[in-house]
Input
Amino acid sequence: MSKRKSKTKEIAVKRSFGQEMKKNWAYYLMMLPAGVLLFLFAYLPMPGLIIAFMDFKAQDGFRSDLVGFKNFEFFFTSEYAWRTTRNTIVINFAYLIFTTFFAVLVAILLNEMKGKLSKKVYQNAIFIPYFISSVVVGMLISDMLFADSEGGVLNQIIGLFGGDPIKWSTVPIAWPFIIVFAHLWQQVGYTSIVYLASIAGFDKELYEAASLDGASRWQRIKSITIPLLMPSIIIMMLLSIGGMLRGDFANIYAIIEDNGMLFKYTDVIDTYVFRAVKQAADFGTTTAIGLYQSVVGFILVVFSNWLAKKYDKDAALF
Amino acid sequence: MKSHKKRFTFGDMIMHLVMIVASVICLYPFVLCFMVSITDESTVVRNGFQLIPEKFSAVAYQTVFTDGTIFNGYIITIIITVVGTLIALVVSALAAYAMSLSRVQYRNVFSMYMYIPTVFSAGLLPWYLVCTNVLHLQNTIWALILPSLISPFNIFLMRNYFKSIPASLVEAAEIDGCGTWKTAFVIIFPLSKPILATVTLFTGLGYWNNWANALYFINDKKLYPLQFMLFRIEQMIRDIKQNGTLSNMQVPTVTFQMATLFVTIGPILLLYPFVQKYFVKGIMIGAVKG
Output
């Protein structure tokens, strides 16, 4: 480093590591606690990935036998690999599409509202579920709305139309829809505020000019708001591709718990891994699944970021 | 759009209708849950969930409060929320401040170090083994605080905010004799109240609602936070439903369940009217940025 000193006369003076530490030690001390915590909880687990390639035995620890890709083979030849991957992607995709659709709808409607008070009341009402833990959501969903008994809210509604009550906890296909509904219920309010923020930044003159030209409200929405909102929508969607393989563990587990009957359409990678860890059955395979998720997740993040960058240079995260 | 008043059109009506339906969907479960919690148990069993109960009763709340375990849960949750949020705020704000200064030569190296874990993680099991076998966090209150303390997203959010403060301000403070730490705490942080408030609120909410860490690490009933207590009640009820009632076990009633639920979310619902606008502002700060 010191050799280059003569070359760098420009804006910032390059210092050697020692000089920099001597001069700015206080700033590095400020970063230290965050750095240490991140090291402990994010970097220290990484060497543990070696377990994915081991026939891990508790008594041998990290001296267990290396078995190559056996653990991966075991998982990918089981029925669970496809089932959990499919469920994870389908549920995440549904989250993304429907949350975006309803959030944009709500944002546009709120933006068009004339009364300030009504706007506020609606926004507050829709935002409330965001503040509730997934346990509470799970309880409200499975013990109240979709309770098995005749008294459950949905069964009461079915009863009104003369139908027989449904024993929801035995109907696997209903639950991916219920999970997506629960997610929307919690997230639409939040996401709509994000879109409302970007609508607030639009040029008001465009709307005034359109009004003067006699554009109806629907025409203003169709020709101004939606086209201007499109870049944010596309960027938000592209960047969510990166998380496609990450499960929404707390929310799904709080609703489904250990009801094996419902796993067919609701068991995602994260819930599967959690059960495997809890039963402590097979450390090797569990770690292998985690690694598979992280590697594919990483590729997806890089890919989605590349796409976002292609679409808009400033939009990418890195 | 202009100042003259417009008529209430058919379009307005549709808009309000849609928003009313959406609002009702969002609020109804809370209202119903509250009404069930103050209903007489046998009435619920007979009639199902009703918005207007045939017979009121406060027995469920009496049971919740005389049982007393809920107070313990409250104390644990308040401790982890307050302590966790405070530590997280100080640790993150300091790191973000150092990362925001162009005079710090290795700030981008540190940013990269912060960023990598957001795109690549070791997965649940290695993380779990580090927490239990290396750090021995299981059945300690730190298991509920430390693992989720650092949020790179929040740190970057704060860094970007600090960056927008003119560097000349830091220099001026130093000329006036402010040291490194004093500049941060007396000049920069007070100027950054909006972002610090945002991070505080979201972090606090996260701690209040977190139950997954308890699920992973806590067996000791004395350390159960509120949300996890609720989860255990729910789990017990499902076990009983699936495996039949055990004669020596007392089944928690529906009204007890709903009353407990309402007691755990009570503080949030009470605070909501006062804090929601800060949350909205916070989301807007984040949204404009990225």
About this structure: Chain B touches chain A through 102 residues (CB under 8 Å). Chain B has 13 helices and no strands. The radius of gyration of chain B is 25 Å.
